């Protein structure tokens, strides 16, 4: 079955979920360029908590430039020695990098047919990669679209225990300006996902 046919089997709600995971991955994988800044600027929110965070990102994107987002990204995630935040599951769950959560993720990636991109050199348990994997599971990028139960298993194991805390830290980080509403979007979205999976049982 083609990837297009598989995606056509995915509900509109799940396509929106996957799209938000993919957008978070795009924002967190590397500094936002003019194309990404333009996409953020064009966003429209609503009166919900998520919609308010999306509106806030659109506002800050209006004043952002590739140079400003690169400076901010570097201070947050790279820094001299290390950035203000370490966006890795292992670090948030154990206090150290390259620990058991990374090994468990690699096992699950092998089971799910997810291969590490050849041009990516950082550990796979970074938040951008995990958001990208979650989006791929929803739409069937790694085979057939994952069942809700399979999505829940992946979320509960690799995102649920720490991603909300990371996004809250990003929202409140002292150097966050463009990335503060990205943190708010991620925090609220993780809360929505957690509750939706809980209600789905």
Q: For this structure, what is the CATH homologous superfamily? A: TorD-like
- What are the segments in which pLDDT stays under 50 over at least 5 consecutive residues? 1-7
Percentage of residues in helical conformation: 55-70%
How is the biggest beta sheet arranged? Answer: none
Number of domains: 1
User: What percent of residues are in strands?
Assistant: under 5%
If classified by CATH, what would the architecture be? Orthogonal Bundle
Structural class: mainly alpha
Give the distance, in angstroms, between the N- and C-terminal Cα atoms.
29 Å
Name the helix and strand elements from N-terminus to C-terminus, one letter apiece.
Answer: HHHHHHHHHHH
Question: Under CATH, the topology is which?
Answer: TorD-like
Average pLDDT over all residues: 94
Shape: globular
Number of DSSP-assigned strands: 0
Radius of gyration: 16 Å
CATH class group: Mainly Alpha
Please explain how this structure is put together.
The protein is mostly helical and 201 residues long. The protein has a single domain (3-200), classed as TorD-like (Orthogonal Bundle). 67% of the residues lie in helices and 0% in strands. It has helices at residues 3-8, 12-29, 34-41, 49-62, 66-78, 89-94, 100-112, 127-139, 148-158, 163-172, 179-200. Helix 3 (34-41) crosses helix 4. The longest helix is centred in the C-terminal third of the chain and has 22 residues, at 179-200.
Short structural description:
With 201 residues, the protein is mainly alpha-helical. The chain has 11 helices and no strands. It has a single domain, classed as TorD-like (Orthogonal Bundle).
